[in-house]
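Notes from hallway chat w/ T.B., transcribed later so I don't forget. T.B. wanted the structure written out for a chain they're using in a teaching module, and asked if we could keep both sequence and structure tokens in one place. Agreed to drop them here.
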Amino acid sequence: MTTHPRVLVSICARKGSKGVLLKNIRPLLGLPLIAHTVRQALEWPRKTHVLVSTDSEEIAEIARQHGADTPFLRPEHLATDTVAKMPVLIHALEQAEKYYREKFDVLLDLDPTSPVRTVEDIERGWRVFRDSKKAVCFSVVRGRKNPYFNMVERGADGHVRLVKTLEGSFASRQAAPAVFEMNASIYFYTREFLLSNPRSLWEDDPEFFEMGPETAFDIDEERDFLITELMMQRLLERNTTS
């Protein structure tokens, strides 16, 4: 990686949403949801350009109003609820390099449904990604449930058992091996990895970095909006009084 790598920030936001209707432009603390992520991306000093990939002119216009670039609308075959994320990112990178007429070293993908993240979270992830020298690095949060302790499944034989087992048993979740949840917030990819047309990020040997439980929250359903708004209000009040 070069001393001063060119970093494209992508924010992918399609108009369809089954969990929460029109969630990417729904107001949150007085701003459309996507605007929070656009502002975080613009504030991060290492970004080269901030680009929104969407199939909606309405989302594109809102993104432009808050400072992001929207040089294309995503084609229909990349805007369904069954399409994988990797083809969307590859398309965004290829279109961005044509539009800006330059090559990028890194693509940083920020999910608009994680508005509680901070610029400090992005910077911490960048440092882990850079130092790891891996092609992929993503954010996680410490698991609230643990497959070694309190997550079970029913096997093909009909019996219920722990998802994962080791010799012996654990008296508490804290004593079990640490596990982490992918929190759908921050992803770093090298250009070379994306242009190899991977089907998923697991085709490489990825790294992860941990986010705190307060800033790692992801909006997936209606109640998450209420929780997120309360969390963001609390963080704003804390920063105001500190």
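Follow-up for T.B.: The chain has six helices and ten strands. Might be a good example for the class.
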